[in-house]
What does this fold into?
Amino acid sequence: MSTDTIVHNGSAADVAVSGRRRPRNGRVEHPTSAQRSATGKAARAAVPRSSLAEWEPAPGRRDPVDVFEEQAQTRVPELVPIRYGRMLVSPFTFYRGAAALMAADLAGSPRTGLRVQLCGDAHLSNFGAFAAPDRRLTFSVNDFDESLPGPFEWDVKRLAASFAVAGRDRGFDTKERDTVNAAVGRSYRKAMRAFAPMRALDLWYARIDVEDLAKQWAKQATAKQRKRLDRNVAKARSKDSMRAFDRLTQHVDGHPRIISDSPLIVPIEELVSPEHRAELEHTLRGVIRSYRRTLTADRRRLLERFQYVHAARKVVGVGSVGTRAWVVLMLGNDEADPLFLQLKEAEQSVLEPFLGESEFANHGQRVVEGQRLMQAASDVMLGWVRTPGVDGVQRDFYIRQLWDGKGSALVEFMDPSMLAGYAQVCAWTLARAHARSGDATAIARYLGSGDTFDRATAAFAESYADQNDADYAALQHAVHAKRIAVETGL
It folds into this structure.
């Protein structure tokens, strides 16, 4: 059976994202465990696990700077130099902003055809803590801007390569990096094999609570590392709308207003003329009303307790810099009852040119539906909207709370053993997300019980880290040649 058969036709290996095939008549088929296992075996025959180690740039591979400049065409022009400045901090921050490059690179490799809901940008900094609806801090994938159905190995490769790049950034030697890199594939494989026989509801509810994770890490951490971990968890717990209100607002003429910190935070009154401000605020109120309709009835009722107060444009992330992002301040009973929402532009996923268009007409909905499918618990305020921008162009946005217990691992302080432990946690989390949306039995059969997949993933990670170094150097060269403008320190 050829790779093309595995990927493209309606064979047993063409598994839908749910792990069940969906014929065009809308009915869901339910293959037996034996049939699903056969699917994984067929995929292994077509795309040997050892082949996943291979990486060579394709002939005629595009200049990476051309790719970034193409992305810049749809972004806020004055913010694009900030994106480049953030990417140039290190090869690792470059990697964070280079999802489009890797998507094109992965598109040229053989595909297993074992489809899941992909994160699309599963690097290690896109995992972290957030407050679940029950208010317990949970650990999961937390960025879905590029989410789209596709072959599971794309996410695993991006995750593994991120650890290889981070290991180099931390100055780890080859042996130390090999240990960290191999931990990604091994943990993913073992987790998927554990998820395969699990009851569907148990799998759906599975998650990692940060409190349990902290206790586990504390056993192997030094006193200094435990203290840093405790501070990081406490900081995450404190990040909510009340803290955002304290840090991001000031009183102007007796009313709370979002602070100005241009160009990172720019209140609406600094973006438009006084005569257009009322029009923009009227539009924002309409956006909130439209977004409200994408919430379930109970959450819609909750949102209706809050009223619009103020808004500002905000720069977020690394790769996302230049896309339009807003923060909106809303108040409930009084100033002790704030709600900060983030409206973030959702463009076409970087995966779509290679995996096909999203089934959702609104890219904001694409992001939200991907997040709900991959996370065991999601922000209660997740929703989406399409609205004209200040320039009159219709754009898609997804909406969530700005701060809701969000926290990230402090990779810059991790030694090799701690980074390997973090690799295991991220890979387990990714496997759980994939098992929710894909066929864990088929994927587990493909992965097998030996370490072939682990070694292949680790080898790919190091090879792709070499490519990342070369692409990073290309961006540096573009700056020195004055081909692009850069704003640093922001």
Observations:
- Residues 240-401 form one domain.
- The first helix runs from residue 3 to 8.
- Residues 1-16 have pLDDT under 50 and may be disordered.
- Residues 352 and 358 are 7 Å apart (CA to CA).
